[in-house]
Automatic annotation (TrEMBL):
EC numbers: 2.7.1.59
Classification via CDD domains: ASKHA_NBD_DdNAGK-like (cd24081)
UniProt GO MF annotations: N-acetylglucosamine kinase activity
Pfam family, one: BcrAD_BadFG
UniProt-recorded name of the protein: N-acetyl-D-glucosamine kinase
Length: 256
């Protein structure tokens, strides 16, 4: 989380100086639960202020771009958490992280399309007249198959299929087991369901990439399909908003 100065919006330096910074785990309550998400946000705000040497009382506005914020009910949930911590005069702005990602590549102008490929994936677009559309970004169960979680989940499935004799043999089997310190694909069952958090599963993506680079066809197909899914999500947003043309701005964000 960056802490930026906004005391005089009419005379801001470009680029803006970074006053403080903090890093933490996931704040997506759909993945880690509301209690963990709230604790993460409170911790990271406190650490960013501390890193900047700024007291909480000096805060005038907070703008958060968060994964998992998909509609007004989600925004109200986060606003409720912040209102219990900051006084009423502090201005609060809550958006999906895709909105912040798009703005970061357009100097704040919400026009164009952004693709985020990380633990999850989402494509989000805006028109100049304020219309917006999104594709994917609904979590792994509902089809973020171009995401890190989707890639890793398909790799784990491929390992189990190879182990059962339902699918082709793959380097993913030995490489994933070695990376996790396991001796048999059967142990993947316990490992997976002991903590099926999205980020934990997605952390296997580098293993999949390494296997693909070493010529494993199964790993290569998983990555190829993931890229296709990401492209489809961008195409869906562009078509719905009629954004296609030479003037299309497309921002790409990788968060693995």
């Amino acid at each position: 989380m960056p802490l930026l100065p906004f005391s005089d919006i009419h005379n801001l330096p470009d680029p803006l100086p970074l006053l403080g910074r903090a890093v933490a785990g996931s704040s997506n309550f759909n993945s880690v639960g509301e209690d963990v998400a709230r604790e993460t946000l409170e911790k990271i705000i406190a650490e960013a202020l501390s890193d900047a040497g700024v007291k909480r009382s000096a805060v005038q506005a907070i703008c958060l771009g968060l994964s998992g914020v998909n509609h007004s009910k989600d925004q109200e949930k986060i606003l409720g958490w912040l209102r219990s911590t900051f006084p009423s005069h502090v201005k609060l702005y809550i958006q999906n992280d895709a909105v912040a990602a798009l703005a970061s590549g357009t100097m704040g102008k919400l026009h164009g399309c952004v693709l985020i490929a990380g633990t999850g994936s989402i494509s989000y677009g805006f028109t100049e007249d304020g219309r917006e559309a999104r594709a994917a970004g609904a979590g792994p169960v509902l089809g973020d198959w171009g995401s890190g979680y989707g890639i890793a989940a398909q790799a784990l499935i491929a390992v189990m299929r190879a182990h059962d004799g339902r699918g082709p043999q793959t380097m993913l089997s030995s490489c994933i087991l070695q990376s996790l310190g396991l001796s048999s694909p059967d142990e993947l069952i316990g490992w997976t369901y002991a903590d099926p958090s999205w980020a934990r599963i997605a952390a296997l993506v580098p293993v999949v990439v390494s296997c693909a680079e070493d010529g494993d066809q199964v790993a290569d197909e998983i990555l190829h399909n993931a890229v296709q899914e990401l492209a489809i999500s961008v195409k869906a947003v562009v078509q719905r908003l009629h954004l296609a043309g030479e003037g299309l701005t497309l921002i790409l964000i990788k968060k693995f």
